[in-house]
Amino acid sequence: MTARTRDPATGISAAEPEAAAVSDRKLRIFRDRGALAEGAAEWLLGVATEKAGAFTVALSGGSTPRALYERLAAPPYQEAFPWARTHLFWGDERFVPHNDAQSNFRMAREALLSRVPIPAGNIHPVPTQGASPETAAAAYQHELMDYYGAEALAPERPLFDVTLLGLGADGHTASLFPGAAVLGEQHSWVAAVADAKNLARITLTYPALESSRLVVFLVTGKEKSAVFARLRRGDRALPAALLHPVGNLWQFVDAECAGIS
Ligand SMILES: O=C1O[C@H](COP(=O)(O)O)[C@@H](O)[C@H](O)[C@H]1O
User: Fold this and answer.
1) How far, in Å, from the CA of 171 to the mean position of ligand 1?
2) So what CATH class is 38-202+219-237?
3) pLDDT digits (tens, 9 = 90+) for 154-203
4) Is residue 211 within 8 Å of residue 1, measured between CB atoms?
5) Distance 67 CA to ligand 1 centre (A)
6) Is the pLDDT of residue 17 over 70?
7) Domain chopping of the chain, boundaries
8) Ligand 1 atom having least distance to the Cα of 172
9) Closest to 66 (Cα-Cα) out of 96, 110, 128, 98
10) ipTM value greater than 0.85
11) Atom from ligand 1 closest to the CA of residue 167
12) Cα(65) to centroid of ligand 1, in Å?
């Protein structure tokens, strides 16, 4: 991948367009959270089916994607999805044990992994025990590089087929928080960071998240309406607005988030 020069303090790249707005054609507004989960599951199955060979997904954490994961774990997706050739990674993780209530892995395990026939070797959680956050970040980067088969990302061969992302009320995505030094990271694929409550987290950096054929933001609820409007305007103060994948960027939202209900 051609390294983009990012300002280490802001994460804004020299080539950043004035407004990074996503075209209306790539914005899908669903009636409600349930309809979004159904639409996203159908869309994901379509993308997976079209792809030959390994289908590689970076999962989002937080609460929003739970409904999608539960939908994928039920008919018809439970049987129709190509689980045997699907590999799952995480865009970010809290540095807590995998059975902790705050664990993104735990949420995905409860909602999806424990209910579908995905081979254990295809599940690639962020390690969160027996190491420091920095060592865990390095180990996850190593695992990603090993899977990818190279230590440098090539734009024509994205790391992920699909990256699912959420949007925090402060504009964070994955664990890329406003003002954090990691926003300027241009080389590492994974980093250890801390959130506002000083909880250690492991996050994929822009270079890794941007190495995606398709990125989809899943955002729901009235409480996200204001920050989503800022994202639509390409507000550079939001880490989520600074993400420019090598492939296409989609936004799937419900009517409340879009401000039309
Ligand atoms: O902290 C996080 O927050 C964002 C948004 O979460 P949500 O609960 O508002 O959906 C999420 O995308 C990220 O993975 C998570 O670690």
Assistant:
1) 10
2) alpha beta
3) 999 999 999 999 999 999 999 999 999 999 999 999 999 999 999 999 99
4) yes
5) 14
6) no
7) 38-202+219-237
8) 4
9) 110
10) yes
11) 5
12) 9
